[in-house]
Amino acid sequence: MTRGTTPVVPDDGLTTAERRRRPVVLVNTGDGKGKTSAAMGVAMRGWAQGWDVGVYQFVKSATWRTGERDALTRLGGLSGAVTWEQMGTGWSWTRRGDGQQVEAREAAVEGWEYIREGLAEQRHRLWILDEFTYPMDWGWIDADEVAEALRARPGTQHVVITGRRCPQAIVDVADLVTEMRKIKHPFDNGQRGQAGIEW
Amino acid sequence: MTRGTTPVVPDDGLTTAERRRRPVVLVNTGDGKGKTSAAMGVAMRGWAQGWDVGVYQFVKSATWRTGERDALTRLGGLSGAVTWEQMGTGWSWTRRGDGQQVEAREAAVEGWEYIREGLAEQRHRLWILDEFTYPMDWGWIDADEVAEALRARPGTQHVVITGRRCPQAIVDVADLVTEMRKIKHPFDNGQRGQAGIEW
């Protein structure tokens, strides 16, 4: 990453400073590694800017503690604000007291409703919607509706979305889309994931 | 990333636990975004495991403070150990007192010498060699020599190498290689990099 000049000078009437502050939607997709870890790297950068960072992990179990969660919530305790939510069988704000499990589909929809409200309210400066492509890909959440909410979001809210098979509607609204492509993976040879590297 | 089973059970005489602790070489290459930020996500995971983490940034200016540097050195102050070195015009351990600038090529070679010694001494548990492909690609550092040092490294040292145009010798020794491929980039439309997202 360089801070150099761009190949095109846009005719958008914005100054360079304004263009540097423009809110962006980033997508990390593809079958390869690094989609979540790159999003977490961006979360660190946002934290260092003093931004309010919200991480919403779809799919991942609510009880699965990852290194990035430990590190970022620790940073959030130092300065800035880091909110960390994992869906599992219900989000922290929806978890039933009666021990009843929420269906994954219902939990995903509840998660998106909460995020959509939060975007309208500018709850965070940087949003990490981890593995958010899956509930869209499965038809649980309407990708066009998400794209519309992203287009309509007020202020300067950056959004990072990760996961395989990113719907085209999200690619269309995104400013930057990266495909992580597997060239060589130890799972091919029977190597297993390990703490410190994979989570 | 799942913790599930692998498609192949390797015939290497190792137990699953041993295989989980096997040292790995990871490469993030390609022209797309996320190579460094994904490496920094892995650094967070390593930190959370209590590992000694060493980040060596080639090419990047020694005075360029990034968010990931702020975040990880802050974490290193809490627990674990995070060493952060940026090459610029000389590393912290080689910087001349006389204000004389070291040639980039010389600095890169000195960096590699120091890292090679450190690998032999098991200085870190997790090494991040950021943008290390460039001095190899430019012919300043011999990729075969690096590959040999990686193969010969003792103990359980994980190494992450980032940068475009990764030499084949490094791909060959790597356990996991991911290509970050640009699908859509705001620079195409004259958008500039910005703090909190790109650094």
From TrEMBL, chains A, B:
<protein>
    <submittedName>
        <fullName>Cob(I)yrinic acid a,c-diamide adenosyltransferase</fullName>
        <ecNumber>2.5.1.17</ecNumber>
    </submittedName>
</protein>
<dbReference type="Pfam" id="PF02572">
    <property type="entry name" value="CobA_CobO_BtuR"/>
</dbReference>
<dbReference type="GO" id="GO:0008817">
    <property type="term" value="F:corrinoid adenosyltransferase activity"/>
</dbReference>
<keyword id="KW-0808">Transferase</keyword>
<dbReference type="InterPro" id="IPR003724">
    <property type="entry name" value="CblAdoTrfase_CobA"/>
</dbReference>
<feature type="region of interest" description="Disordered">
    <location>
        <begin position="1"/>
        <end position="20"/>
    </location>
</feature>
